[in-house]
């Protein structure tokens, strides 16, 4: 076992891991943060997407030991003092989830797109969000929700 | 769906990585971006006793023109090729190829060197390396070895890299302004593995094709150059008719097609014809 330190949502977690433990397993079982979901465990579905040093990462394809000392952000860190943030509110309003399994990964990927601060046209948005799978086939509403937040923050893609 | 136990080693330099491999032999594997290796480990198709993480090696991700060559650091992430900052036909080709590799979060982690060392038959970078006769630079404790692409790819997921060698750098020819480069790929879902892909690179002089390199990936266990298509193109003018003839020659010349649940040999043969044609058309329109 190796002792590592993960800074998750601005809280330091000291956890003991085996090298074979994935980052997402460690977040769920070592840190008690079960918001990040485990789907396919081979990088296809994107349900486990978290931000590592503000970059979207498949949490099933990074070992926790590789994230030692890094800043991790998960769905648990999105809310605004207990209230939905803009993306969460948009997912609610646009009915961008049904069973909710893919939602944490979708939200973290979308968080990266919004925080990147660049204009995103509809084609690029569709292409990036296609990184993650939704088996309720709610894609159209997911795209509408992210689009709404991008438009509200001036990233409407008109200049792209 | 969880990997077997392994010992995790961080290499701070290529020398350290090579030393680790020398110590552990075929029990050790290199961990680069992990976007192919970790799934394979999760399926337990690979069970290395030691994993040597090279991600922290400094100055190992770069694209650098050096005389007639483009030197690519093994740890250069795929996403870097979407804006390579290189002039000329190769600089225009790299983003068009990179865009086909998986999805953006995968491209932000996965590495150029990792793709070559993994040697998936459907790897875009392997097909490019074979088409342009890249040189792979492998390091071991005994020194450096330069491996030509024609010798590098042995079969699916198998390369000329010895157990104690780590791929450190790749050299591609920096193509001059007379070259035109094209790429085409077929897959069933956006971001999925290619079933067939083609890289087409031609050199034009006074309206004539004076050099041609036609690469095909995904069709066979390793990427191949199509001598038949190259021969058909040489000396001709870049017309649709000639491109169709060359694409047909490429398809007819292949005998050892991969077959799987996605495509049988007949479909792959037809896809080779269409992808070579599209890659050639891409070369003259965008290249």
Characterization of this structure:
The complex is a heterodimer of chains A (160) and B (287). Chain A is α+β, with helices and mostly antiparallel strands. Chain A has two domains: 2-77, Beta-grasp domain (Ubiquitin-like (UB roll), Roll), CATH 3.10.20; 86-152, [2Fe-2S]-binding domain (DNA polymerase, domain 1, Orthogonal Bundle). Chain A is 32% helix and 16% strand. Chain A has five helices and five strands. Chain A has a five-stranded mixed β-sheet, sandwiched between helices. In chain A, helix 2 (86-93) packs across helix 5 (139-152). The longest helix of chain A is centred in the C-terminal third of the chain and has 14 residues, at 103-116. Chain A is globular. In chain A, 45% of the residues are buried. The model of chain A has no long low-confidence stretch (mean pLDDT 96). With 287 residues, chain B is an alpha+beta fold. Chain B folds into three domains: 7-53, Uridine Diphospho-n-acetylenolpyruvylglucosamine Reductase, domain 2, CATH 3.30.43; 63-173, Uridine Diphospho-n-acetylenolpyruvylglucosamine Reductase, domain 3; 179-286, Enolase-like, domain 1 (2-Layer Sandwich). Chain B has helices spanning 14-24, 37-42, 88-98, 104-109, 112-118, 124-131, 149-152, 227-233, 240-253, 265-286; strands at residues 7-10, 28-31, 50-53, 63-66, 69-73, 135-140, 143-148, 153-155, 158-159, 166-173, 179-186, 196-205, 208-217, 224-225. In chain B, strands 4-5-10-6-7 form a five-stranded antiparallel β-sheet. In chain B, strands 11-12-13-14 form a four-stranded antiparallel β-sheet. In chain B, a hairpin with a 2-residue loop joins strand 6 (135-140) and strand 7 (143-148). In chain B, helix 8 packs antiparallel against helix 9 (240-253) and helix 9 (240-253) packs antiparallel against helix 10 (265-286). The longest helix of chain B is centred in the last third of the chain and has 22 residues, at 265-286. Chain B starts with 6 loop residues before the first strand and ends with a helix. The interface between A and B is medium-sized, with 26 and 25 residues.
